[in-house]
Structure formats: structure tokens, C-alpha cells
Design brief:
mainly alpha; about 130 residues
């Protein structure tokens, strides 16, 4: 699959943007009521409300690629906590306890915290100016 190697930087940026958009929708659902879901209009002081703030702000920062590494690291930890506090108690297998998405977010964000935002990010623009 060496023919795709030249697209790695583009795919990294695409992974960051899509991950940011998917996380952002969880925050907008909790705070803006869109899309309509089970966690609309939750109390800000609850764990889900605090997670919603991370999702809202962190999702936007990931989409634009600003502070990608620290934001992705925080989101990785937040989604790991979500898995262990919400899903793991329902059973061992993520397929059965509904935790697949939380695990995937955690590991994709962990990867982004190591790899960075890619060439199409605000972080890359800042590096070019330095």
C-alpha cells in the first residue's frame, strides 16, 4: 500500500477534522440542543455537563487544528473516563456495554496527541510563521 504513503499528511488532517466534528456534535447536543438526543439540556454541574464543555470547546479546537496535541490528550482522557464511568459497569465487552465509540475516541485522540494536527491546521500555520 505504498501508493497511499504520499497521502498520509492529508489523511492525518482529515482524521483530526472528522474526529473534532464527531466530538463537537456531542457538545452541541448537550448545550445547544442540536442534534436532539438523550442528553439535551443537562445540568452544567453534572459529569455529562462538564464533558459537554470539553466536547464543545475541544471539538472546535480539533476541527481547526489549534493546540491539537494538548486538546487531543485531554479529550483522550475524558473519553476514557466516560468509558469507565458509564460503560464498563454494564459488562466486559464494549459491543455489549455500548462503549465502542468512547474507546475509539479515546485511542484516536491519543494518536492525535502524539501525531499532531497534520499540515492543514492552525498549528501548522503557526509553525510556518516561526
Amino acid at each position: 500500500m505504498g501508493f497511499l504513503t504520499r497521502f498520509e499528511p492529508l489523511f492525518l488532517s482529515l482524521l483530526r477534522v472528522m474526529t473534532g466534528l464527531l466530538i463537537l456534535q456531542h457538545g452541541t447536543s448537550k448545550y445547544l440542543g442540536f442534534p436532539v438526543g438523550p442528553l439535551n439540556n443537562i445540568p452544567m454541574q453534572s459529569m455529562a455537563g462538564i464533558a459537554g464543555l470539553f466536547e464543545l470547546v475541544g471539538g472546535v479546537l480539533l476541527v481547526i487544528g489549534l493546540f491539537t496535541r494538548p486538546v487531543a490528550f485531554l479529550l483522550s482522557g475524558m473519553t476514557a473516563i466516560a468509558y469507565f464511568t458509564v460503560h464498563a459497569g454494564r459488562g466486559f465487552f464494549p459491543l455489549l456495554n455500548g462503549g465502542n465509540l468512547a474507546i475509539m475516541f479515546s485511542f484516536v485522540c491519543l494518536y492525535l496527541s502524539a501525531a499532531g494536527g497534520g499540515p492543514f491546521s492552525v498549528d501548522a500555520l503557526i509553525r510556518q510563521k516561526e
